[in-house]
Amino acid sequence: MSDRTERPVVIVSNRGPVSYRVEDGQLVGTRGAGGLVSGLAPLLDSGRASWIAAALSDADRAAVADRVSAPDGLAVRLLDLDPKDQALAYDLISNQTLWFIHHGLFDLTRSPSYTADWLEAWEAYRRVNQVFAQAVCESAPVDAAVLIQDYHLTLMAPTLASERPDLSTVHFHHTPFAGPDMLRVLPAAARDEMLTSLNAYDACGFHTQDWAENFEQDLRRWPHATSEVVVPAKAKVFASSLSTDAGDLRSTAGSERCVEHLRSLEEQIADSQLIVRIDRMELSKNIVRGFQAFDLLLQQRSDLHGQVVFLACCYPSRENVPEYARYKEEVLAEVERVNARWGTAIWQPILLETNDNYLRSVAALRRYDVLLVNPIRDGLNLVAKEGPLVNDRFGTLVLSTEAGAWAELQSAALGINPFDVEQTAEMMGLALDLDPSDRKTRATYLAGLVAERTPLDWLEDQLAAAG
């Protein structure tokens, strides 16, 4: 077995670190951003790791067909999956079933309803996992550590254990993990297959101890979950929180283009206090209740009229999923309602930005007085960590106790029950009213808490779990 600091590593995920586009008739590859990529990029850049991911666009698939090299000489392999299998596995199983179960989003009086179509989709999900597993078996160096990321790829372990017993495999969930009360919603055969496979990895990681304990409770609740493959020893279960790359984020925040966005924002809001939220427009982020709480705050506090603006950078996501499309309409309607109720000729209470603009979002994080992060359930929520690192105004974090980040940041954030609109309004008001010295003390302490962990810490935890 190779020394842990030198052994080769294979990273596996649905979305990879590289994507392609057609520019002037040529395929051009660009590196992605985000928590997962920043957390694992050091290994990839070192030449020690390779990355296997799905081709997600027509340009990606063309790059696979044309064998286009990844930018910067990175060892990235994209898999051109069967289009129907990919759609069923990603849309129906990953996003409309597993995501909903792990985040507690199903209205059980109405959904889910499993039919033959769903069972066909689960078979597609299994086949996609098998394609990924075979790609690892074919290309992984001897004795490599294989780091498999997230809920899209839970069924790979039995094949890897059978065909490549030399590999050390780690699966890491970036979402919450459902406990028995929600996991029971899955059909028994699918639930047992997933638990059996996860238990066949050498280790399973989660962002918080709560999610890890949920997984262990599931294994105790269904101890006789079986599959066609006999699994080896029980997986090691561990918790490890991802953090953001502070240096990279601060560099972005100080860039001229970001500063331009900040100037534009300052022109919009002048000297108003600013509440900010940055989210994908999806159900677990609890956007509508956040606006309802702001509406209640304005109802209770006439002194804030014209003095505070709520900037919501919320971009649409998964619009092919009916529940998401409906939620987008609810978000837009709530913004319109609040602005119609309280707005004046010179003051718009809510500014809603729906196009995904990373630099504008970072500029907003620099300027907030209050950062609202109120998901009904979240595996971690990196925005809660990113804001304190770049904020210029000693802003205050109002954070849902159901976000994974709460486990780390609760001593410096103002906590809220995400379902309690009254409490959310109260905490936003309290945050706006904090004494400047208290605000500075709290914000400084919060930034220090965030800085205690780096993406490398998270990466090292996975490598340690691999053995």
TrEMBL record:
GO biological process, one term: trehalose biosynthetic process
Pfam families, alphabetized: Glyco_transf_20 (PF00982)
Cited InterPro entries: Glyco_trans_20 (IPR001830)
Molecular function per GO: alpha,alpha-trehalose-phosphate synthase (UDP-forming) activity
Name of this chain's protein: Unannotated protein
Higher taxonomy: unclassified sequences, metagenomes, ecological metagenomes
